[in-house]
Predict the structure.
Amino acid sequence: MRWSEIGDMTCSIARALSVVGDRWTLLILRDAFLRTRRFEQFQASLKITRHRLADRLQKLVDNGILERLPYQDNPPRFEYKLTAKGVDLYPVIAALVGWGDRWMAGKDGVPIELVHRGCGHTIAPEFVCPDCREPIGARDMLAQPGPGLLAQRKKRRSAVKRKT
Amino acid sequence: MRWSEIGDMTCSIARALSVVGDRWTLLILRDAFLRTRRFEQFQASLKITRHRLADRLQKLVDNGILERLPYQDNPPRFEYKLTAKGVDLYPVIAALVGWGDRWMAGKDGVPIELVHRGCGHTIAPEFVCPDCREPIGARDMLAQPGPGLLAQRKKRRSAVKRKT
DNA sequence: ATACTAAGTTCTAATTTGGAACTGATGTAT
DNA sequence: ATACATCAGTTCCAAATTAGAACTTAGTAT
């Protein structure tokens, strides 16, 4: 199985993970959020092999998460910047940081604190319902078929009909 | 390099990803959140090889994210349930769903909608600062060294001192 | 002329994964 | 009683992915 397509890909998580779901990619993005931009910087920070790094950066560019922009011409050199689609992955990173802080922190406490520029508080952000503003936990949400799944089911039904 | 330890592990993301950061694990957890519990159910749903599944489940149990509980004695059979630590990964899953919905949905629309049980609205949850309740984006947060990192730096400094 | 930098590429060896068959304890149908 | 099915895994080999290290290319600095 090629990892560009996981399982049935009906699920948004599967689709997201097909782009972002390997071990290095999220670490590369973490560095990107901390304003790392250049090949050598990523490599030095992550100790990823150069090969792998080139590969992952390429994939992120292909998927519109990073942009490869020239920053000088002679010799041609490029840097990688988060696109809007990339910046929008921030909640994923933040959620991972939060969980890591809560459950995997060493005895010395959390390694990095997040400070909200607006109010100056150093707290992990939390998920809320944008409508009623209540914090959201796993069992507060109900998953139900959306338009995409319904459309797909419809297609499948008519495909079966054609066969019989 | 063994993947139980990524890079320098100073970072909460690296620590989180060392447990949760491979392609199958988050899909297994997605299923767990949708109340899948048994080996055969996971296998049928994910089409992961049995070998890999056994491996990943074991690792999740080792890390306290799933619990392996007997549900019958003759023959002995077990099911896997999310622990508190596992349930607390919900924001990560939710963030992935949100991003997948926003950027990777097919033309038919999102496959699954999330309904907030409290208010009945079908919207993707958003991140807010728990203090001022403002929505949080990538550039609204400032990362600064926390107690864990400071403690570690202190240790390193004294180690250097001993050497010289 | 030599060394150095940035951003890759190429090569081989080691590790991880996929695919498919097999196990073992039990329950059910013929 | 024999055959077949279920569940929760193991075992084995081939295929894909990754690590590690050296090499490339184009320009700059000493």
User: Anything to note?
Assistant: The domain at 12-147 of chain A is CATH 1.10.10.10 (Arc Repressor Mutant, subunit A).
